[in-house]
Design brief:
CATH superfamily of the largest domain: NAD(P)-binding Rossmann-like Domain
Helix content: 25-40%
Number of strands: 5
Number of helices: 4
CATH class of the largest domain: Alpha Beta
Shape: globular
Structural class: alpha/beta
CATH topology of the largest domain: Rossmann fold
Strand content: 15-25%
Mean pLDDT: 92
Strand order of the largest sheet: 1-2-3
CATH architecture of the largest domain: 3-Layer(aba) Sandwich
Oligomer: single chain
Order of helices and strands: EHEHEHEHE
Length: about 120
């Protein structure tokens, strides 16, 4: 209710813009993707409210997962424990049937999923 402390961004675009408004003072953004613009024919302008970076004294840092592969087992142990304890929640969009896999993949680029897109084989 008081805003976001840390925002992990895989989407960019309007979602990042919404997060910039919702972040608390000294909030942090980890940028790991920008799927909302991957299929754009030309780059979109940046968020209209980027000034929040200054007023809220935000920090934004890029992340590429492969930079951290040497810590994968440590991550799996720590985060796996949080997940098993019910401290982490995840959302998935599940489609059933291999015949829907292509549509599910395309749906990723059209915003037709919440969380991870999963194709469940019958």
């Amino acid at each position: 209710p008081d805003g976001i402390d840390v925002y992990f961004d895989n989407v960019g675009g309007e979602t990042l813009e919404a997060a910039l408004s919702a972040l608390r003072v000294h909030g942090r953004i980890i940028a790991c993707g920008s799927i909302s613009g991957y299929n754009d024919e030309k780059p979109q302008p940046g968020p209209s409210n980027l000034f929040n970076m200054i007023g809220k004294r935000l920090t934004m840092k890029g992340l590429i997962v492969s930079d951290w592969l040497d810590r994968q087992s440590e991550f799996e142990q720590e985060v796996g424990g949080y997940f098993q304890a019910g401290k982490l929640k995840n959302k998935e969009t599940v489609v059933v049937g291999i015949e829907r896999a292509v549509d599910a993949f395309i749906g990723l680029f059209e915003g037709k999923n919440v969380g991870k897109m999963v194709v469940k084989l019958d």
